Every structure is written in structure tokens, then in C-alpha cells.
Amino acid sequence: MKVAVAGCCHGALDKMYETLELLQRRHNVRPDLLLCCGDFQAVRNEADLRCMAVPAKYRHMQTFYRYYSGEKAAPVLTVFIGGNHEASNHLQELPYGGWVAPNIYYLGYAGVVRFRGVRIGGISGIFKSHDYRKGHFECPPYNQQTIRSAYHVRNIEVFKLKQLKRPIDIFMSHDWPRSIYHYGNKNQLLKMKSFFRQEVESNTLGSPAASELLQHLKPTYWFSAHLHVKFAAFMQHQTNSKEELPKATKFLALDKCLPHRDFLQIIDVEHDPSAGDSLEYDAEWIAVLKATNSLINVTQASWNMPENNGLHAKWDYSVTEEAIKEVLEELNHNLKIPCNFTLTAACYDPSKPQKKVEPVHTINPQTTEFCAQFGLTDINDRIQQSKEEGSVRGEHEEEEEEEEMDSTGSAEEPSEYNTDNSGLSSINPDEIMLDEEGGDEDLSTCSVDPSPDHPPDFSASFSDIRIMPDSMAVSSDDAMDSTNEELEKSGVSKQVEEKSVNERPLKRIGGNENGNSGIKKIKRRNQAIYAAEDEDKTE
């Protein structure tokens, strides 16, 4: 089965799908599935734009709304995770995943699905230690803080994923697992992105939560985006016993979706020929959701997940084969995810712009149906109930609530990640500047720059399509040759078009050669993503 993998989409669905069509015309390659590693930007209207954490001048409608309205249809099944530049109000409607448009499926805060027997998992958002132990409490209309914290990874999602025992074929995260750069061509990475050097050398670049999942899940493939650079690695995992077979993960980070960018990869994945063409629920994941449902927290109270430290009556929430069998029986062994997409918001109309429309907190019928079917808590319904009961509690009430949580989780233990190194201390000129304190962020206005009704033909500019280039098939600096050999054996396809990354000049939008002199320290890896589209025209 051929799987296409894309980096940050940034709402440019037309460009992404046109690239796939170009791939088919030029090379007779038709992917069966498209995966997108975050910053998808499922923006339906102006209200969604205001819920996206970027400065107002970077809020552009792009083309997703055409697929949401039904004007256009996704030509290939598309599965994506959330990043840190999303219409958070839209994705929040689907905490357990669901269809954002026909044939376009969101994995939720965390999720696992199956397609043709291939098991695909993912976790949305980026890591920030100060929000990691909180519940999913945010809801629109967001303020300057919650518009950012809404996309921060939470420990409960990592905990759920760590209960999985069965093998994962493909896993997606938006930010990179911390330390993964030590298993690839680190010198080439720093040559392309020299401003990463400090974080790489101090081993603080990337997400520690994703790194923990990588060590636990040991998927065959792990795909990420976020840093806007192509990078491959090969990680050989240690075995826990002599009987356990050795496992390895092929990691690939993708560039962003823009003309002349190497943002798309095609890989060959072994699949079950007898499996159908429908996206399916994963029975073990559903069983884990049911087992961990009591841990749901929709408050700002910080607490750790249960662990074997003498403070918790139960800490193992992994599921038995019997529990998985019960899920299958509930579904009559029909795991097909229903195509129950419904419109939950007005779609953008270029002829009738509505720049002052207010975002509202919506409960999506897909989530209601999913929770009712499996006996799960509808997080958004719980948030609304909390608001109705008076969600702003005094400090005394919050302390009492935290004490009640001690039966399953602890609010008193220190976080397993007590430092927050997810922000660059150096400057990444390829990302959006987003100051933590708010700065130029204006939630009261949005700048709508609609796509033209007849977008131009991108076939000329989207010529740099790669199918897992050999130049990026690398391992640790001490084992380059052996890793190239391993990646060749893994079924990775050959390169469609030869073009060395070294032929592309690096562009900077500010700062000196070192990228950190005379510039205010950036607290978030968000600086000039969209501005790069203008840069590319000069490259």
C-alpha cells in the first residue's frame, strides 16, 4: 500500500492534492492514503480564523472551507493530527477524532485507527510543561492564554497511548521526539538549520513526551513536522528480554506545504490485502478509552497520571484480550468508522465576509454519537456543565477538587517534566513570531485573505516531489552506512526526482548569521511560517 505523508499543510489543501495528482500524471503513482502531521488548519469561516494562534496578519482563509462545504472533495482518504496553528475551536469539537469534511479524518487529541490492516496512531499539539498536567479545560471564545494552551499536549493523552500493547505501524506527532536528531545525520541538520545547534547540543530540542511514546510504542514509522525541515533517522530500540525480537523505528520529519518545498513523501507499507478500503476503529484503543474514562479532567488543576509509587490503588490501565473482545462484540465485529460528517458551523462565503463573527463552543454530533456508543465522557459537554455550574471556582474549591483526584491521580507530585525547553532560545527564521505575552496578537479582528475562486495551476511549481530520498535515509553519526542499508531493506521507495538539499540556499528573515544577536528571546517555536511563501518566490 502506498502512503503519502505531508508536513505542515497550513490550509493549502488545493496545493497538496494537486501535488498528488501531479505525482500520478508524471510517475503513475497513486497513494492509497494521505497522512498530514499537523498545522492542517481546518478553517471553515472567519470565526475559526480568530481561534488560530497566529498574528492577525497571518490569518488567511486558504482552501479548506471548499472541502467542508462540499464544493470540492478530497481525492484520497486523508488522516491528520493537530499542530500549534489550528482552528482550535473546530478541532475541539472532536476530542476523540472524527470527520472534519468528507474523506478527511482528524485523529483527535490522541487516537489510533486502522486502514487496510495498517495501525495508525497519533497525538495532536505540541509540548509545553506548564500545561502538560492540566485537563482539557479550554473552550471558545478563547483569551490570550487559552488560544495557545488549547493545543498543548496533556499527560492524559500520553498516558492513554502508553496503555497500548499491540504493535503500531505508523505514528504521527507534530513536534519531534526529543533526542531523535542523535539517530540521524545531525551534521546535515545543523547545516540546514544552524540555529538548532544550542538545543541539539543540550538535548532540549523536541518533545520529551513524544520521546517517551517513541520508546514505549516502538512504531515501524514515526512522522513529524513543525520545524519545517526534512530530516530522517533510524532508531534501534533496546529489547526488554532475550525472547523479545529487536525493533526499530524509521523516523521522518517533513517540510511545510509550499511550492518548491520538499514536503511530500511516498512510502510503501505492508498491508492486509483482505482488508476493506474503509477507515476503521482500533478495538484496543477503544478499550483503552473506556478503561481510562474515569481519569477525564476538564479543569486547570494540575495532576499526574497514576503510577506504581504507592499513592494509587490502580496504575495499570492497559486492557485485556477479553476487554478487546467485548468491544468487538459491541460493534458486531464491524469496525468501520461511520461516515457521519455533519456541518456544525456556517461556511465561509467570499461574497459575504463576516469579520466580526464570534466563535462559539459547539458540541459535535459525531462526538455525541461516539461517546454514547462506547459509554465515554463527552469532554465538551462536561466543560459546558462546568460553566453552567460556575466554572470559575475559588482557590479553596480547586484545592478540594485536587484532593478528590488523589484516588486516581496525584496533584501533589512534581511533573515528570519539570522544565519547559520546548521554546527556542535561538531564532528559527522559518517560523511565526508568537510572543507568549500576546504582543501583536489581536483576538478581536481577523484579516481574511480568501483564495481566488479559480486558483492557479501549481503543477509547474510542485515539481520537487520525493519518494523517501536516499540522501535523507540516515542513522546515527556513527552508523551511517549500516542505516542506509536498513532503510533500503525497509521497503522505502526510490527517489522520484534527484535534487540535493544542499542546492537550496538558506533564507533568513532577520538576525545575523548566528540568528540570535540583537533579537528578543523567543518563547515559542512560531515565527514566520506563512512569510516563507513570499521567500520562496525569491529562491
Q: What do these coordinates show?
A:
The protein has helices at 13-27, 46-50, 64-69, 88-92, 129-132, 146-149, 155-161, 186-192, 197-201, 208-217, 283-291, 321-330, 365-374, 379-390, 395-405, 480-489, 531-536; strands at residues 2-6, 33-36, 78-80, 98-101, 104-106, 110-115, 118-123, 170-173, 221-224, 231-236, 248-253, 264-268, 279-281. It is an alpha/beta fold. It has one domain. Strands 10-11-9-8-7-6-13 form a seven-stranded mixed sheet, with helices on both faces. Strands 4-5-3-2-1-12 form a six-stranded mixed sheet. β4 and β5 (104-106) form a beta hairpin. α11 (283-291) packs across α12 (321-330). The longest helix has 15 residues, at 13-27. The radius of gyration is 22 Å and the shape is globular. Mean pLDDT is 80; it is low at 403-415, 418-427, 435-442 and 444-539. Residues 235-380 form the Lariat debranching enzyme C-terminal domain. Pfam families: DBR1, Metallophos. This is DBR1 enzyme. InterPro entries: Calcineurin-like_PHP (IPR004843), DBR1_C (IPR007708), Dbr1_N (IPR041816), Metallo-depent_PP-like (IPR029052). It is found in: Nucleus.
How would you summarize what this structure contains?
GO terms for molecular function: metal ion binding; RNA lariat debranching enzyme activity. With 539 residues, the protein is of the alpha/beta class.
